[in-house]
Each structure stands twice: as C-alpha cells, then as structure tokens.
Amino acid sequence: MASIFSKIISGEIPCYKVAETEDFLAFLDINPNAKGHTLCIPKKEGDKIFDLEDELYLGLMKFSKEVAIAIEKVVPCKRVGMTVIGLEVPHAHVHLIPLNTMEDARFLQKTQLSKDEFQEVAAAINTAM
Ligand code: 5GP
C-alpha cells in the first residue's frame, strides 16, 4: 500500500537521508525521540514487517544493523535500540534510536532539532558507514 514513505522513496517528499542501497533506505525520523533516531525501510511497499518475505525481512535486519553500528559510532549514547511499531505509517520500518535512558525508547518525549542539526547528524552517520 502506498504511504508517505513511498513518496520519500520516490523523492516526492524530502528526507534527511542516512544511507541507501538498491533495496533499502535509511532516513532520520522527522519527529525524533532522540538525536539520530533513524528509520530503515525496504523500498518495496508492504505494511506489516512480519508479513515481509523472509529474504526482504532478513535484508532489512542486516541493513538496519549496519546503520545502527554507524549511529553508535557518531551519536553519544549508551546503545542503539531497535523498535518496530507501524501504527502511524503502513510501510514496514525499523526505528533505530540512540538510547541514554528508558525515556528515549518510549515515544512520549520528543527532541526538537534544527535543519542544520538534522543535516549534520544524517551526514555523520552516513560517513561512519
Ligand atoms: P510508526 O508507524 O512506527 O508508529 O511511526 C512512524 C514514524 O514515522 C514516526 O516516528 C514519525 O515521526 C515518522 N514519520 C511520519 N511521517 C514522516 C515523514 O514524512 N518523514 C519522516 N522523516 N518521518 C516521518
């Protein structure tokens, strides 16, 4: 099903891109829990992550792992957490969130970033990959 993420994949809607392969895209969440909060998605449309075919699911996990390792290199945090929700956008995605406290994982407390901060952290993660 087409969602706002399809428009991000096509470039119709801009994003702060972190990484891209032929099959996957990583970009910063526009309403982040913490600085560096990144979404990893398959380019192929599909809603629920556990409905993805195995190869695509495993590819998404591998891609997410590579992005998470890069985030941990450049964003000060205790660890990078991975969360799957999907209640807002019906296009399978993984949240990668730099965690310092449990609050960072709870989607209740949000961080405001300037355009420059978004651009800077996206570029830093990309360079660390
Ligand atoms: P979920 O579907 O997992 O509940 O949440 C979807 C996530 O996508 C939210 O954290 C939200 O901030 C993010 N999001 C929604 N629309 C956009 C958008 O247009 N651009 C970006 N970068 N993130 C978005």
How is this structure best described in words?
It is built from three helices and five strands. The termini are far apart. It has a single domain (about 5-10, about 20-129), classed as HIT-like (HIT family, subunit A). The protein is about 30% helix and about 20% strand. Strands 1-2-3-5-4 form a five-stranded antiparallel β-sheet. Strand 1 (about 15-20) and strand 2 form a beta hairpin. By secondary structure, the chain is an alpha+beta fold. Guanosine-5'-monophosphate binds next to strand 2.
CATH domain fold name: HIT family, subunit A
The rounded Rg comes to 14 Å
- Chemical compounds bound to the protein: guanosine-5'-monophosphate
Return the domain count: 1
- Text of the CATH class: Alpha Beta
Task: Determine the mean pLDDT.
Answer: 97
Helicity level: 25-40%
- Count the strands? 5
For the biggest sheet, the summary is: 5 strands, antiparallel
Q: End-to-end span in angstroms?
A: 30 Å
Going across the biggest sheet, name each strand in turn: 1-2-3-5-4
CATH-assigned homologous superfamily: HIT-like
Q: What is the N-to-C succession of helices and strands?
A: HEEEHEEH
Tally of helical runs: 3
What is the beta-strand fraction?
Answer: 15-25%
Shape call: globular
Report the uncertain regions.
none
CATH architecture: 2-Layer Sandwich
Structural class: alpha+beta
